[in-house]
Amino acid sequence: MSDIVTVIAPVNIAVIKYWGKRDEKLILPLNDSVSGTLDTSVMCAKTSVCARPDISENEIWLNGVQATFSNQRLHNCLNEIKAIARSQKSVTDDFLTWNVRICSVNNFPTAAGLASSAAGYACLVAALAKLYKIQTDISKIARMGSGSACRSVYGGFVRWHAGVNPDGSDSIASQVANSSHWKEMRVLILVVADTKKLISSSKGMTCSVETSDLLKYRVEYSVPKRVEDICEAIREKNFAKFAEITMKDSNQFHAVCLDTYPPCVYMTDVSHKIVEIVHKYNEISGDLKVAYTFDAGPNACLYLLEKDVPEVLSLIKHMFPTSSNEFVKGLKAPETNMTDVLKDFPMNPLQKDLMKYVIYTKVGDGPKVISNESHLLDAQGKLV
Fold it and tell me: What is the mean pLDDT of residues 185-212?
């Protein structure tokens, strides 16, 4: 019998976006991307895996519900892990024949544009790699499940290299800076909607590759320089430069979505209002204090420095009044107060409860094994 391995893995939020593949099957991107890995104490995927001779077929349970194991990406990850284990002779031949039971849960909304698949596949691959005792760069295996998952296997700020090799062997992730490099960096996730989006990222980017002329320009001209510039800004801890590049890239990404035929619309009126508020706040402050970025969904991710969190949270609470008693979740939020800047803010508060809640978090570390025990799953694959 094998032990059950349980791993937690982080969400990552891209500041230079991945959108479009050069190879659908191998999940090879058209361009490099860069992201920040978020603290697993606030948002994470948690996956338990085991292999047993008495499991009649491979099983996967997602958020307490059994799902089909027919997903080809899931098979690709498991088969690659087993192939490496076989070549490294890290487990017995009998062990390699046993079926697996996988149980995964997210503590944040799934498929709502909050990088749930990235956390999920990074977690799965990290757990399977531990279960099969292999030694390898797991970022390229996580990529086979969900492209951006390769960035969630490292902490801090991470770059996914698009690579040029047809087999994808050089399409891997590397760390730009670890989580302790820019300790002052904080993140506010403004949750506008926590329901499943209408157009999946996979479908959206396929349509963009087929129809968007702007995407071709972005890949050839915009992204290469932005990637180098933002990596330099991260290393130098130059927030103004980081913020400008982050916002410009988010804007261009969503312009590509609108340039797609038919268009992919992920942002909402509330999303656009957040953009307007951030630009107005930065203008009044006389400096770039906050950067927004939107993945393929309506929810905003704001990067900012710790010293500015109290004022920005005050602004959010002022502009988005709420009836919720738990409006700010995550890390312990600092006390907020209306400053002179906010008293003279030239925009009126919006109607009540347009924003569901705010998640306050920070840049954190990569996947972590939290147990290696035999009592975490019952016979139905549920966490106990």
Answer: 90
Percent of the residues in the chain that have a pLDDT greater than 70, as a whole number: 94
Instruction: Please give the distance of CA 97 from its chain centroid, rounded to a whole number.
Output: 33
pLDDT band at 208 (very low <50, low <70, confident <90, very high): very high
For the entire predicted model, the pTM comes to 0.93
Q: Quick one: which of 177, 180, 185 has its CA closest to 158?
A: 177
Nearest Cα neighbor of 257 from 301, 294, 302 is 294
- 25-35 tens-digit pLDDT: 999 999 999 99
Backbone φ, ψ for residue 249 (5° rounding): -70, -40
Q: What is d(CA 371, CA 43) in angstroms, rounded to the nearest whole number?
A: 18
For residues 249 and 219, what is the distance between their CA atoms, to the nearest angstrom?
11
- Under a CB-based contact definition with an 8 Å cutoff, are residues 144 and 73 in contact? yes
Enter the tokens of residue 133. Answer: 């005792």
Q: What is the Cα–Cα distance from 221 to 113, expressed in whole angstroms? A: 26
- 126-152 burial, b at 16+ Cβ within 10 Å, e below that, comes to bbbbbbbebeeebbbbbbbbbbbbbbb
Phi, psi of 23, rounded to the nearest 5 degrees: -145, 110
Distance CA 218, CA 239 (A): 23
49, 99 contact by CB (below 8 A): no
Which residue, chain included where needed, has tokens 């002052």? 184
Region of 103 (left: φ > 0; alpha: ψ -120 to 50; beta: rest) is beta
> Is the pLDDT confidence value at 383 over 60?
no
Q: Which residues contact 133 (CB under 8 A, 6 or more apart)?
A: 85, 90, 91
